[in-house]
Structure formats: C-alpha cells, structure tokens
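So, does this match?
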Amino acid sequence: MTIYPAIDILGGKCVRLTQGRYDQSTVYGESPAETAKRWEASGAKWLHIVDLDGARAGKPVNLKAVEEIVKSVKIPIQLGGGVRTQSDIENLISTGISRVILGTGAVKSRKLVLDATAKYGDKIAVGIDAKDGFVAISGWEEVSGFRSVEFAKIMEDCGVKTIIYTDIATDGMLTGPNFAAMEEMAKSVNIIVIASGGVGSADDVKRLIPTGVAGVIIGRALYTGSVRLEDVICLQSE
C-alpha cells in the first residue's frame, strides 16, 4: 500500500475542494513546494499533484508551482489536471514529473492514450473520477457516458498500467472511502489501482488493503490532522 499525499493547486496555492466543487475550497498553504517538502520529510515516497486550474481550463496552468515542487523534493511525483495533448505530456515529463495522469483527455481521445503509452509506458496513468458510477470530466463539472469499470477495462486494453480511481461523492468528506467500489475496480482489471476520496482516519487506510488497491491518495485528512502521515507510513511499500 503506497501512500500518496495530495497537493491540489488552485491559483498557485495549496487547497482542498469538497466533492470537487470549486466554490468550496479551503486554502491550506500559500506554497505548494513547502507543503511537498513537509510530506517528503514525513516519509512519503510519492506525491500526488492536481492542477485544479488546469483541469477546468483544459491545459496545464500552474506550471511554475509544479516546477518549484519538482526542484524542492527528491521523491517521484504523479500529476494530473488539464493534460490534453502529447505536448502537455512531454512538457510535464521534461519538467521532472514521473507519472502523468490523463483524465478528460483519455475520455475524449483514445489515440492520445495509445500514443502516450506507446511512447512513455508506465509513466502514463489514467484518472477515473466516478460520479454515480459514470466517469466525470472537465474538472468534474461534466459527466461522460462511460461507466467507470467499463472505461478502466478499455484503458487497460490501451496499455495503461495505473488507474487512479476517485469516488467524487466521498472526496473531501472524511467519511471513509467507497470500499465496495474500490474493491470492484481492483478486481475488474489486472493493473495498478490507486484509491482516492474519503479517507478520514488511519483505519480507513487499513480497511483499503484487503480491497486489492495498490495505493491510496490522502488529501484533506492530512491537512486537518485527522490522519498523521507518520501513522500510516508503515503501511507503505517500496
């Protein structure tokens, strides 16, 4: 179980949204780079970054903040938000991002996924954000016609090795992940599934282990203190 502290960037600041709503954001830090150093110092072996402005704009926006994070830490980083083109992918990888997450771009262009995985292999992941069982896109403000598990299987066939699976209803609520949905996803594909959304305690992280997910992204719970990274880091694998 790999623990991924989340750093969501909006307007150059470290924030958390509730259920993906941009009008319900809380600022937890003026400097995402300082936040990244804090999680690295606490034992994180990966970071999960979302360019929230980019997700809504359809192109990476907070590149300066991302570059500062990359320069500030030595651990690998996965990043999503507004990645829609091969050029976006190339720019992020050249910046030092270890894994680029496609979301809306993957839903709208199968060719983008095929070309990206052919060139970059496991440096490409796909984020599947579920709203009532369907894949949400464009910063969670639209819902596609794809069912989450169905789309994950399509992505696996396209060569994707990692899925980041978010249940929007639980995101930022601290009420616990959708364990059943995470288990269904993990059992439906033969690739890495990283759970996201709803973690509110160390027990939530422990309960995710038998679902079969390989990792978990933790956001608001770390920032509010309801989960201490040091308390769950022992569950982290190499």
